[in-house]
Amino acid sequence: MTDAISGSSAQGATIRPEEAAHFGQLAAGWWDPKGSSAMLHKLNPVRLAFLREAIDLHWAGDVESVRPLAGKAALDVGCGAGLLCEPLARLGAEVTGVDAAPENTAAAASHAEAAGLDIRYVPGELGTLGLGQFDLVTAMEVIEHVADKPAFVAQLAARLAQAGLMVLSTPNRTLASRALLVGAAETFGMVPRGTHHWDDFLTPDELADLLAEAGLTMGEPRGIAFSPAKGLHLSGDLSLNFIVTARRD
User: Fold this and answer.
1) Burial of 92 per CB tally in 10 Å (0-12, 13-18, 19+)
2) Looking at 17-26, 62-71, 169-178, 198-207, which range is the least confident one?
3) H/E run at residue 227
4) d(CA 76, CA 137)
5) pLDDT at 206
6) What domain range is 123 assigned to?
7) pLDDT at residue 211 above 70?
8) Each residue of 225-246: b (16+ CB within 10 Å) or e?
């Protein structure tokens, strides 16, 4: 499942209106751990574990610090209703969330205010917003939903500060992901129907090529796998979903 859709290029929009509408309809229930976004609530701790390790390694920070992003600016693209933005704020970052669906940014802003968190949420096309650059740029379960993937990655790269860190996650295009993430997950109601389109999934090599075209080097991918014993967890198995870092060359 995605944290929504965003992005743009000077040549044209990368947002797919039908995708933005699909996820905008889910805005009201985004923070319900048993609702339509239940899978995201299960996925978020796994992504945060990877992200925290990447932050500590990239900035050689104190692994025991509760605010390793203090003094840093973070951008979450395709932020949905803020499931990742709020933990980033609690890690000390000055956070901006961007999403294609105004319903999502409205829900995100309302939830952040109730939680006492100062997070800036902006709806619209990433490339038209003039947001500047950020120390940390994240786009989790987003790139598989954009119309122009090279343009989207170029826009992410343009937002990344020279010594910054980017983290992305996305489903892998494999037979296993087609059977489980699209077939079984939607058939059994684990994610809303129409969430995933298998042909839009990327392999790690394809994502590495897109990042290289934008002047970024991708780190070693980690899989996000599932087992009955562990649930969703970081793994060497990349067949369903993977998460990566990227940095400037």
Assistant:
1) middle
2) 17-26
3) strand 222-227
4) 6
5) 97
6) 8-248
7) yes
8) bbeeeeebebbebbebbbbbbb
Instruction: Give 41-97 pLDDT, tens digit per residue.
Output: 888 999 999 999 999 999 998 999 999 999 999 999 999 999 999 999 999 999 999
DSSP 153-211: HHHHHHHEEEEEEEEEEEE--SHHHIIIIIIIHHHTTSS-TTS--GGG---HHHHHHHH
DSSP, res 78: S
pLDDT exceeds 70 at position 201:
yes
Counting the structural domains of the chain, the total is 1
Half-sphere exposure (Cβ direction) of 99: Cα atoms closer than 13 Å = 32
What confidence score (pLDDT) does residue 184 get? 46
Whichever domain contains 101, its CATH number is 3.40.50.150
Report yes or no on 152 lying in a domain: yes
The answer to whether residue 236 sits within a structural domain is yes
DSSP secondary structure letter of residue 66: S
Structure tokens at 54: 């990447």
pLDDT in tens, 117-136: 999 999 998 989 989 999 99
In a domain, 129, yes or no: yes
> Is residue 2 included in any domain, yes or no?
no
Helix 204-213 with 149-159: angle, nearest 10 deg: 60
